[in-house]
Amino acid sequence: MNAALHQPRRVVGGEMSDAVFAAVSRIAHREAGLVLAQSKMAMVKSRLTRRLRVLKLPSFEDYIEFVENPGNAGEMPFLVSALTTNVSHFFREKHHFDRLKSEVLPPLLKKAAAGGRVRIWSAGCSNGQETYSMAMTLLEMDPNILSRDVRILGTDIDNDVLQTAREGFYANTMLSGLEDNHLRDWFSAESLEGEEGYRASQKLRDLVTYRKLNLHGDWPMNGCFDIIFCRNVVIYFDEDTQTRLYQRFQNILSDDGWLFLGHSERIGEAANSLFTSSGVTAYRVAKGA
After folding, report:
1. CATH 1.10.155.10 residue ranges in the chain?
2. What whole-number distance in Å separates Cα of residue 117 and Cα of residue 151?
3. In the structure, what pLDDT confidence band is assigned to residue 13 with cuts at 50, 70 and 90?
4. What is the 3-state secondary structure (H, E, C) of 118-171?
């Protein structure tokens, strides 16, 4: 154990040293490509304090030692999850869904009706609001979509949010973005463990498959995607990691595939040759890329 990390000894609720923060940053970048600015120290301290309490560890230094121990590899997903923010709502950045309906999906649905294969990927799907928004859009455009070879894949690095997505139950506080007709047509009012909310219909859930995936690691998917949503995810990565990710997206997209990013994200100069801008944070695979 590095002596610089282990001195002075800290207790839960104490200050986080620069050395510990630097160690957390190195681990986060190594394991998931995350970049933690120094300004995030208070957030990191607050979130990791919860892990210390769960593990009954007295200090941040002990936590670093615990995480770096090969025998405690199971803690790494909890660390990465603690450092990322899972905030979403239905039909977030509505202009993207308007673009889906007006331009992106019509030719794909025509292909599907003729027996073709259509695949959509939500990379960083969080609690599932994005994937179910996609599913509602598809079902409203083609009520027979479940009989076509059309599927949505939702992936995330956080097991907890994936469990919420699979269950499809959303407390009333998580329904932002849904209108009355959405609730009427695609959800049923339920109570789960004493909390009132709504559950996504079986049709919505049948369109979506959820898998755990670290974008920084291996991708086991076979075949190409026609659409990738990766919104408010790359903001956690440095420029080199973003460029590698865009290259991988380009490799797994169809020749006329679409990539949608978050409102504050842009494809950097190093990856400009891979995609062509086609609207606000909407990109198409560049011809000949």
Report:
1. 3-83
2. 9
3. very low
4. EEEEEECCCCCHHHHHHHHHHHHHCCCHHHCEEEEEEEECCHHHHHHHHHCEEE
Give the residue range(s) of CATH 3.40.50.150 domains in the chain: 94-285
Beta-carbon count within 10 A of 14 CB: 14
Catalytic residue from among 156, 226, 231, 284: 156
Residue of 47, 117, 166, 199 with catalytic role: 47
Q: What is the mean pLDDT of residues 242-268?
A: 93
Residue 4: per-residue pLDDT: 46
Tokens encoding 20: 């510990």
Closest among 96, 31, 73, 88 to 236, alpha carbons compared: 31
Q: Kindly report which listed range (71-75, 181-185, 186-190) carries the lowest average pLDDT score.
A: 71-75
Q: Quick one: which H or E segment has residue 258?
A: strand 253-261
Among 62-76, 78-92, 124-138, 203-217, the minimum mean pLDDT is found in 78-92
**Does residue 156 carry a catalytic annotation?**
yes
- Report d(CA 131, CA 114) in Å as an integer: 24
| Domain 94-285 indexed as CATH 3.30.450.20 | no
CATH classification of 3-83 is 1.10.155.10, yes or no?
Answer: yes
